[in-house]
Design brief:
By secondary structure, the protein is an alpha/beta fold. The protein is built from 11 helices and 9 strands.
């Protein structure tokens, strides 16, 4: 079977699934590139190249995993975020383009020419913390997560991306692990992309999200606001005067978040590319 034939066969398989139809060609090509370890240019230049039996077997195994709705990022083990390649496993939420708006908003609102102390709450793969550290060379970033398995992935990403000397990691329920280490009114910025999906929305989600990504990083009670209710008042205690709180939020949550931020200053929201309020910003 040639490369072209193998790709076409995979496209037909994926196209028969309503959840995979839209990305059928992209997934078929990406899985083949991952199987063979070649570039897209090479694939396009040699469409008549024959696949060996071992190569074809490995490709078919990856196709089976995708047909079972396993996310492409878990199959290939990587996801690009803010221009950097991050390793991802089922222990962490897959970084999404929407979260890049959160990083961008923080970088636009903190000084780049002085020492900063920043906390990333619920760091997962470490994408936010590491991206900030790489763009803020004078910042000290603490990356916190309740999951030791997630922190292991994040630490590996920090090493790979040469940020391990500037990001510290700790197992923590929200800000708890820092309470004994730092005084009140210390932190310049607290950032978080917390779980914010209402539990009742699970049935409506794409199976590759619902069935594979960690539920603890997705769902937050009946209305999706449980973590915000705990984090916002704790962040107010920990931030220095004028410190920045930056949160990713879910669809339809702007009003509720505004109410939870009552008493904060400079409350604003940043829309994503679909015009949905995606980032909440406020200062102590």
């Amino acid at each position: 079977m040639t490369l072209q034939q193998a790709i076409q066969s995979a496209i037909e398989i994926f196209a028969s699934d309503e959840h995979l139809r839209e990305s059928a060609r992209r997934d078929a090509e990406s899985l083949l590139l991952h199987t063979l370890g070649i570039s897209r240019a090479t694939m396009l230049s040699y469409p008549a190249r024959e696949l060996g039996e071992e190569e074809l077997g490995r490709y078919r195994e990856l196709i089976k995993r995708r047909v079972a709705h396993e996310p492409m990022q878990y199959i290939t083990g990587t996801q690009e975020f803010y221009g950097f390649p991050f390793r991802v496993t089922p222990a962490v939420l897959i970084p999404r383009p929407e979260t890049e708006h959160l990083v961008e908003a923080v970088l636009e609102r903190v000084p780049h020419d002085r020492r900063l102390h920043i906390v990333d709450v619920g760091t997962g793969s470490g994408a936010i913390a590491i991206a900030l550290a790489l763009h803020l060379p004078r910042a000290e970033v603490f990356a916190l997560d309740l999951s030791p398995a997630a922190l292991e992935v994040a630490q590996q990403n920090a090493v790979t991306l040469d940020a391990s000397g500037r990001v510290r990691f700790a197992v923590s329920d929200l800000l708890d692990s820092l309470a004994a280490q730092r005084k009140v009114e210390y932190w310049d910025a607290i950032i978080s992309n917390p779980p914010y999906v209402p539990a009742s929305d699970a049935a409506l989600m794409h199976p590759q999200v619902r069935d594979y990504e960690p539920a603890s990083a997705l769902f937050a009670g009946g209305d999706g606001l449980d973590v915000y209710r705990r984090l916002i008042p704790r962040a107010r205690e920990a931030l220095r005067f004028g410190g920045l709180l930056a949160l990713e939020i879910g669809f339809g949550q702007q009003r509720a978040i505004s109410e939870l931020l009552s008493g904060w200053q400079g409350i604003s929201f940043v829309d994503d590319l679909q015009g949905i309020p995606r980032v909440a910003l406020a200062r102590k």
